[in-house]
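Q: Okay, next protein. This is NAD(P)H-dependent oxidoreductase from Sphingobacterium ginsenosidimutans. I've checked the sequence twice, so it should be correct. Can you predict the 3D structure?
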Amino acid sequence: MKILAFAGTSNKNSINKTFVTSTSKYYKEADDSVELLDLNHFEMPIYSYDKEVELGIPQLAHDFAAKMDAADFLLISLAEHNGSYTSAYKNIVDWVSRIPNRKTFNGKPVFLLATSPGPMGGSTVLNAAVNRITWDGADILDSFSLPEFHKNFEEGKGITNPTLRSQLEAKVRKTKRALAEKLTVQG
């Protein structure tokens, strides 16, 4: 199985990058591959219709879409800026959505994550995404919010709070079962 994982942020030291990287290890088995993307490698002009008419759709939008299309499963951890998506993530989604004859996520199964330093754990952006990206062609298998990242996560150990770790692991098992079923039906 090909897994594409990324944090919805351009912050080089993002806790969401740390979180999605840690969570992706639950999915790596013998025949699986995990590709971790950095949104900084897909920086494009801020989307506007005028820019689209003038410049066309940037190659980087096509490249990002191709990465998603080549994956069997998307693991996304969304950073929250002022209660919403980061501009880096939103801009990529805006550009990819303009590629003719496609939905942004093209039916890919997705496990959505979010974390933040505060007690809400990025739940505002996570709830917005759960309610929105199905319209963009995502098949959301589940979602998970990790509150108080610095209190509940340790580099090299992952989630240190036993209850939260158990909740994440249950969702990982659930998404693995759903993925196995989907791949059996497809293949």
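A: Here is a summary of the prediction. The mean pLDDT is 95. Residues 132 and 148 are 25 Å apart (CA to CA).
Q: Noted. On to the next one.
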